[in-house]
Design brief:
single chain, alpha/beta, TIM Barrel, eight-stranded parallel β-sheet, 8 strands, 49% helix, disordered N terminus, binds zinc ion
């Protein structure tokens, strides 16, 4: 890499990647990440490589520029653009490799990775072949220290029929490693009730259920995701900061809120929830939710697109005033809330607790 390009990339990263990153007690511990989109982990260098595979020349700077948004619609647009370079199983294998390398670097030992099956289907791709390549890439000996589980995600704005197609694809591949059915995308596009058949079907097939809600939508969107769709975990759910009774009832029902700090800042979700266009990290409800007894996990969502990683998210959480005990609690919750059989979950929790204990943290 020439010096000029190195300097440019360093400049971009200096602006976009957190400068507040400080080590936390969680850094050396084995970790789990539950809200992580495979396609959102495509770093600029990998996007350039993918585009070149399909005859398009783009630069790292162009990708970095596309990865800046002022609102949620801008983020969706960028997601659409970068996924347009994912055209065959080899492309999916490449991004899986790159993501697992990243996770390994951060001592992540368990990850539930969301795959935008809705986008694959819309582009008339072979979902089974793509997933076979993803799974094969994740099972190479290099990544033997990371256990992966997979979630097929429908894009809400594609509507109920498309969501049902995703649920069917997920059910078909349940035995091959799809643990859950989820829904993301534009939360404000269609009401939850439209998707009830897809969620009901997924549940009847033994799949676990997760839904993005209360990210840019209000508390009622979270309520609908739980009451109408039966979501066991909520992607983001930060809208509950505006409804204490709802936060309490979710905690009682063991519904988990998957918080993602950088994401909420980058997409303008936090600004939307707080009504403050200049909302900053200090406005995030993570600490308030934990203090209030909510079940919360911490994740990166789309790490490359939000210029973050899991270690940085914990560092941000620490800067919000979370105590070391609360950071450990967050990390532990990410194992407890996993979509795994109880025995498998217990083993992972034991590994985590043993490491925390030997570090004098438990
Ligand atoms: Zn997400």
């Amino acid at each position: 890499m020439d010096q000029c390009r190195t300097a440019t990339i360093a400049g971009i990263l200096a602006q976009l990647v957190s400068t507040e990153r400080k080590a936390t007690v969680v850094d050396p511990l084995p970790k789990a990440e539950l809200h992580l989109h495979l396609e959102g982990s495509i770093r600029p260098e990998t996007a350039v490589e993918l585009a070149a595979r399909h005859g398009t020349k783009i630069s790292v700077q162009e990708v970095a520029a596309r990865y800046r948004y002022s609102n949620f619609a801008g983020f969706i647009e960028a997601f659409k653009w970068v996924t347009s370079f994912l055209r065959n199983p080899d492309d999916y294998a490449l991004i899986t490799n790159r993501l697992l390398e990243e996770l390994q670097r951060q001592s992540v030992i368990y990850a539930e990775i969301t795959i935008s099956a809705g986008v694959m289907l819309r582009r008339m791709q072979n979902v089974e072949a793509n997933f076979a390549a993803i799974r094969e890439a994740s099972q190479t000996v290099v990544f033997s220290r990371i256990r992966t589980n997979w979630i097929f995600d429908a894009a809400r704005q594609f509507g109920a029929d498309a969501a049902m197609e995703v649920a069917r694809a997920a059910a078909k591949l349940h035995r091959d490693g799809i643990a859950a059915f989820g829904m993301g995308g534009d939360e404000l596009s269609f009401p939850a009730v439209n998707f009830r058949p897809a969620f009901d079907f997924a549940r009847s097939e033994g799949l676990r259920l997760v839904c993005h809600a209360g990210e840019v939508g209000g508390p009622e969107s979270v309520r609908d995701a739980v009451d109408i769709l039966g979501a066991e975990r909520i992607g983001h759910g930060i809208a509950v900061m505006r409804d204490k009774a709802l936060a309490g009832s979710l905690a009682t029902r063991h519904v988990v809120l998957e918080n993602c700090l950088a994401s909420n800042l980058a997409t303008g979700a936090l600004a939307a929830q707080t009504g403050k266009p200049e909302a900053s990290l200090e406005d995030h409800p993570l600490k308030m939710l934990l203090d209030g007894g909510s079940l919360v996990t911490l994740s990166t969502d789309d790490p490359a697109m939000f210029h973050t990683d899991l270690l940085t998210e914990y560092s941000r959480a620490a800067s919000l005033g979370l105590t070391d005990r609360q950071l450990i609690q967050l990390a532990e919750q990410s194992f407890s809330a996993a979509f795994l059989p109880p025995e498998d979950k217990r083993q992972l929790l034991d590994t985590f607790r043993a490491a925390a204990k030997s570090a004098g943290l438990l």
